[in-house]
Structures are given as structure tokens and as C-alpha cells.
Amino acid sequence: MDLSSKTRKEIGDLGEKLAAEYLKRQGMRIRDRNIARKTGELDIIAEEGDTLHFVEVKTNLVDAFPDERRAADEYDPSLNLHEAKIRKVARTGEWYVLESEWEGEWQVDGCLVWLRRSDGMGKVRYLPQIV
Prior knowledge:
Elements lengths: L7 H18 L3 E9 L2 E9 L2 E12 L20 H18 L4 E12 L5 E6 L4
Parallel strand pairs: 3-4
Antiparallel strand pairs: 1-2, 2-3, 4-5
């Protein structure tokens, strides 16, 4: 599937779907997705044991996957996981914890997704506890 004609929103949605599938394969249960409040949006809310994970997903459309050895040449989507964004996710996560009456631990994680333009294949990098 060629992704060249997809919008930024469609690319972001594909990245979030891929990230959710990745987290499921890692043993997490997806509780919610795309929860929006005044304080911000939570892309993925996953549960693992007695810990809630608020996962911020950043997706990048690429011609080729980044090479780990020379990643400095490629745009790094983690640059969008800046302090202000993480703070918004944490504030919205606090709201979610109170609203859902969650009594366990919680944390903010990141998930970087690269989608290859020519065929739609993806690469995921999970970043636990980015706060």
C-alpha cells in the first residue's frame, strides 16, 4: 500500500494503530485510545499489571527505515516528544487516573513509528517512562 497520498492525520492514525498492535504483542492490554480533554489528548492508554501506560505516539513517513548506526542522518520523531508535550500528556493522564478511579501506578511512555512510504511497512520503537 503506497502511503504517498495519505494525509498527516491518516498517517498518524496508522502509526497509532501499529503502536497499539505492538503494545498488545508485548503483553499490554489497550484500555482506551484518543481520549481528548481540555488539558490534551492521550493517544493510547495501555494496562500492564497494576500500571497504566499513557503512550504518546509520534509517526514519521519515510522512504527507508533509519539505520540504527547512522540515525543522525535521519529525522528523529522523538524530537516531537519535547518537555511541553510530555507535560500535557502527564496532566491529561492525571485527569484520567482521577476520573477512572485508577488505584495503581501510572507512567508516560513514548512510541516512535516509522512508516515506509512505498509499501506501508512500519518500524516501532517503544520508549518506556519518558517523564
